[in-house]
Amino acid sequence: MAPVSHSIRRALLARLMGPLVLIMIVGGACAYGLAQYFSQAVLDQWLYDSAISLANRVKWEKGRASVDLPEGAREILEWDVVDRIFYEVLSERGERLIGNAALPPPPARPNTDTPVYYQGRVNDALVRILAVGVQGPGSSSVLVKVAETRLKRNALASQVLWISVALSVMLAGVSAAVIWYGIGSGMASMGKAVRDVRSVHAAAPLSPIPINDSLPREMFPLVQEINDLIENLSAAHRLNQRFVADAAHQLRTPLASLRVQLELALREHDAVRHQTAINDAVHALTRMGHTLHQLLTLAKADRNDSGFVPQAPVDIDLIAREEVERRIDDALAAGVDLGYAGAGEPVWIRGQAELLREAVSNLLDNALRYGAAGRHVTVGVSAESPEIYVEDNGPGIPESEREKVRERFYRIPGTVGDGCGLGLSIVEEIVRRHAASLVLEHRGAGTGLRARFIFGAGVGKVEPAPA
Ligand SMILES: Nc1ncnc2c1ncn2[C@@H]1O[C@H](COP(=O)(O)OP(=O)(O)OP(=O)(O)O)[C@@H](O)[C@H]1O
Ligand SMILES: [Mg+2]
Asked: 438 in ligand 1 pocket by Cβ < 6 Å?
């Protein structure tokens, strides 16, 4: 199933729109509240003006109040295109001095300075009422109440509400569009970076992507990772090329001689010479098999995909003993006294057993092959460094050759036998991957070679021994 593609642009828009819509709703609600507050305050002020003009009509005569409201003034007071206006003036004892409706009493006793606004009902209609006290001579006073229905107020409130909602929706839409195009143009720089990378790779494949100012900063970690990947890929590619080149070079000669010997065998009628040619062909095949094995081992040790080898606990004492056992028959056949020197106790290090086995096998192979007549070969393990070593009593390697023999395909001139010069370079590679060191030295004071595979402090012993 194809992976579902994930758009950064959509994801960012979705993430931003949630909080943005929330902000719009809160903002819209605040705007609505404010508009509502000020519009109602204006309407309340008109109500207050009406109440004050009515209060000004109150006359006092011998401590008794009366209201002088001519017809014209009453019409002005009651006139309103939308709402109905009610009023009522009550004496101190609660007698109605004037009024066109009975208005509910205020929740608190008002005076001229502090009018009281409240809600109430007149003839089942909800009204906004204002009550104000008018002080007469002495302690006498009257209560003036003016009320109006809420049609204007309700209409204003719903208008303000709709305008707020419409504004919020419009702002949300505009913001979404701005975010969408903003992110889009921001992402366009990525498109340019991709085009740059494409042109670089068209010119030079497997070259790293240049990290420069044209690259968005957010892409740096990704590009860095890709560059590491490219580096690993090109290293692997180089190794493969080298392997193919080495293999082709090394196998060409034995292949050619194999062909010559087989052709000879085909032509040969003499039974003995025919047998010799076949034997030579088998020998050439064995050499080729060995070379191929060495090349493959080198390629395996050379693989630098993960730097160091997996750090698993390995018992090098066990490896030494097993390698001695494996080659004991070969040693007997060659008249070599092959022995093991070690405490017989596990010596744990961290590394890769398969490669270490290959290293010991190569060192042992050299000791068995290049030692002198009446030879002794010892594979030893020391827990001190820790190290694993192979020593023989052969001619050894002269000082001047000790670096060269580590090179690929190098054999000391005059060396007999069928080696291809890869054994020590394989060991060297395995040493490198274990952060260890390979010391080639004379055995004690005499001749012979002691090849020491010494594990560094970083590799170290592993305690305690795993099950
Ligand atoms: N123990 C030894 N005593 C004397 N000479 C040695 C010893 N080990 C290695 N050499 C010399 O070092 C050379 C390089 O050894 P190396 O193991 O790399 O290759 P090789 O043995 O010739 O071939 P290969 O191991 O790939 O079959 C050998 O050709 C040999 O001349
Ligand atoms: Mg060798």
From this structure: no
Q: Could you say which ligand is closest to the alpha carbon of residue 372?
A: 1
Q: Rounded distance, CA 245 to CA 239, Å?
A: 10
Residue 20 in tokens: 């943005």
Q: How far is the CA of 322 from the centre of ligand 1 (A)?
A: 22
pLDDT digits (tens, 9 = 90+) for 405-440: 999 889 999 998 888 899 999 999 999 888 899 999
Record the pTM. Answer: 0.57
CA distance 456 to 433: 11
- Domain range 312-454, CATH architecture: 2-Layer Sandwich (3.30)
Distance CA 18, CA 22 (A): 6
Does ligand 1 have an atom closer than 6 angstroms to the CB of 420?
yes
Interatomic CA distance for residues 394 and 336, integer angstroms = 11
Atom 31 in ligand 1: which residue has the minimum CA distance? 412
* Cα end-to-end span (Å), the chain: 44
Three-state DSSP class for residue 454: strand
| CATH T-level topology, domain 8-157 | Beta-Lactamase (3.30.450)
Helix (H, G, I), strand (E, B), or coil: what is residue 248? Answer: helix
H or E, element range at 421: none
